[in-house]
């Protein structure tokens, strides 16, 4: 059984900060589950264009509001608590956070190691 507390991860290497987000990486590849689980906060008013070419990502909104846009189709979806979106086809997408920001529970497969950083395309490299 794995038991972790978010408070214990804050301020450690498991908490990754970018210009527009904070990702608390709760479960990682080293946990041996085949997926990683993250508590991600998107900063108010921020805009991020991302494309996870090597991972499938699911995001479940638990707080805040904003939108996610599928770049290829131009479709825009509202994000609010209770909304899930999954990038099952590695879609290039744009996240726009509202005035209060967004908070997600995110799952990546394959699992992230915790050392990844977004490249120039908004993607993470191939898993080790």
UniProtKB/TrEMBL annotation:
Descriptive protein name: L-ectoine synthase
Function: Catalyzes the circularization of gamma-N-acetyl-alpha,gamma-diaminobutyric acid (ADABA) to ectoine (1,4,5,6-tetrahydro-2-methyl-4-pyrimidine carboxylic acid), which is an excellent osmoprotectant.
Keywords associated with the record: Lyase
HAMAP family listed in its UniProt record: Ectoine_synth
Domain of life: Bacteria
EC top class named in words: lyase
Residue runs in coiled coils: none
Family, as annotated: Belongs to the ectoine synthase family.
Gene: ectC
Record field: catalytic activity: (2S)-4-acetamido-2-aminobutanoate = L-ectoine + H2O
PANTHER family: L-ECTOINE SYNTHASE, PTHR39289
InterPro entries with a match to the protein in the record: Ectoine_synth, RmlC-like_jellyroll, RmlC_Cupin_sf
GO molecular function, one term: ectoine synthase activity
Keyword Lyase: yes
NCBIfam families: PRK13290.1
Gene3D superfamilies (UniProt xref): Jelly Rolls (2.60.120.10)
E.C. number: 4.2.1.108
Biological processes, Gene Ontology terms: ectoine biosynthetic process
